[in-house]
diguanylate cyclase
Amino acid sequence: MSRRQLMQMLFDEYAELYLGRDPRLLEHFSHDFSGYTGCGDFLVQDVSQWHEITRLDFSQVPEPIHWEMQDIAFQDLADTVIAVTAFFQIHLPVPDAILASETARLVLIFRQEADGWKVAHSGISLPYRVAAQVGEVYPLEDLHNRNLRLEALIESRTRELEEANRRLEKLSRMDGLTGIANRRTFDLTLKQEWRRAQRRQRPLSLVMLDVDRFKSYNDGYGHLAGDEVLITLARILAQQARRAGDLAARYGGEEFVLLLPDCLEPAARQVTENVRTALHEQVLPHHGSPWGIVTVSLGVARLRAAGRADQYFPLASC
């Protein structure tokens, strides 16, 4: 066997026993031993103390562990002395994202003694940003606490993301100026309510309205005042869409719609009168209108069993 093969064999045998948590590893340490652990802050100069540390290591993590080798170097220092330096990542049989992300460094010095090759020195460096508790070889308690904090942070961020997504979804369904449903939401809801009404043979009424002479109002009073008129009208419509399933939406520009499921035409026309009355009570001045105040034109259409939903828009035109 060549010296290179000997060095590889000695390291492989050590690794097999250590990773397999095999207590026979204790027999491989020299009586004249020194070493240090990755989480310890002291030098071990007594083999019995090292035996205790190894037993503690095995009891703390009794299941086999794995080294993902990064690099290894062999040094033939003398006829009876061999050094092995290994770089690897440690994978424990417990959640170890922090451990597995760092590179550990192990130095083993083997010395040939009367009863064979023994480990005369073992030093492992664990460059983890964690601290071991008293009685620990691996900093598992600190890692566990960090994992708990990380899980709590992930859960918190997930909740925040879900809430942000809900807000975005809500915003995507709302008109940015008036705060009521937008055209996209209306189109989707109309299709759903249309199919439901046809299945159940229930009435579905549609009210369309627009602001009279709105361009003249914008030209005379400015766009900010025009926006306030639209906001006021949206608020009035939202107050009329009180039942479950009712929908007030901005259709576009100064046009608005009310979708009224399970609503017969007489009830829908009463809603339009409620809108006219509520707007009239606002007494919004409009010098470009023959009536001197802001008014709206409204139209009502009722679903019939046959046909398509979009066929009823002309019927509801103001």
User: Anything to note?
Assistant: Residues 3-148 form a domain with the Nuclear Transport Factor 2; Chain: A, fold (CATH 3.10.450.50). DSSP finds nine helices and nine strands in the chain. The longest strand covers residues 66-78. Confidence is low (pLDDT under 50) at residues 130-135.
